[in-house]
Amino acid sequence: MGKLSAVDGLLLRIAQEFETLPRQLQNIASYLERERANIMVQRINEIAEGCEVHPSAVVRFAQRFGYSGFTEMQAVFRNDYTEASTPARSYQQRIRKVIADGEAGMPPSHMALRFIDASRAGLDELTEHFDARQFDAAVDLLLQAQNIYVVAVRRTFSIASYIVYALQHTTKRVHLVSGLGGMYHEQIRSIGKNDVLIAISYPPYGKETLYCSRIAHQHKAKVLAITDSALGALGREAQVTLKVNEGSAFAFRALTSTICLCQALFVALAYKLELKVEETVHPGEYDE
């Protein structure tokens, strides 16, 4: 698997240890996930107030995960968010880093093989940590849904577009929340309690995707999150979370594992729907 960013790595460790943390530290862990984009500018007293803990608990939390104190942990969020919030610049910086690392002379075909290897590593990770129970629950959610809404932005928008295309080959009513014309609110407002929202996002989470998830919750709809962590801002409140950690090469993440999982989700749903149809058809009804 490709190397995680420092914040992704920290949040993954937090997710793995979350259940063993004291209640106060769990509050801090949840706050960091929820406010990860703002941690870089918040003072320790603000974070403590938001978590309803004493500032010393924030220091203990940082030390629990290997930092000398709050300031060192905050710097990790600041560095990651600075890169993520300026995608055009960070793309250029990543290319320049490839050159600086002495990989500029690498033939394009070798670069392609590195990406293929990274994608393969991501698929291996997906297989190794595949949660059959959550996947089956995801299929059941979609099977029972009257309407299926799908939202993803920027890097993952192509995945949302594909899964809508695929699901439209079933009998389900499917809606792509594209935000065309800035109309996220108008496109998601009709979601209801018998519907499902498929929300796809990875850190830094798309604010539009998180907004649609909140609206779905308010309208009593179910949320199927495809993301990196069940503890993250998207996965934490979803009814079902399918976790994906993509491989990466040259600091660029692949989408191979996500598209594979979405294709598998469509095939499994289509299979279930066909079984459901066959159960209602009497023997010989298809005979001419």
TrEMBL record:
Organism, scientific name: Dyella acidiphila
CDD domains recorded: SIS_RpiR (cd05013)
The protein's name in its UniProt record: MurR/RpiR family transcriptional regulator
Domain of life: Bacteria
Keywords: DNA-binding, Transcription, Transcription regulation
Domain HTH rpiR-type: 8-84
Domain SIS: 138-283
Gene3D superfamilies: Glucose-6-phosphate isomerase like protein, domain 1, Winged helix-like DNA-binding domain superfamily/Winged helix DNA-binding domain
Record keyword DNA-binding present: yes
Database matches in InterPro entries: Homeodomain-like_sf, HTH_RpiR, RpiR-like, RpiR-like_SIS, SIS_dom, SIS_dom_sf, WH-like_DNA-bd_sf
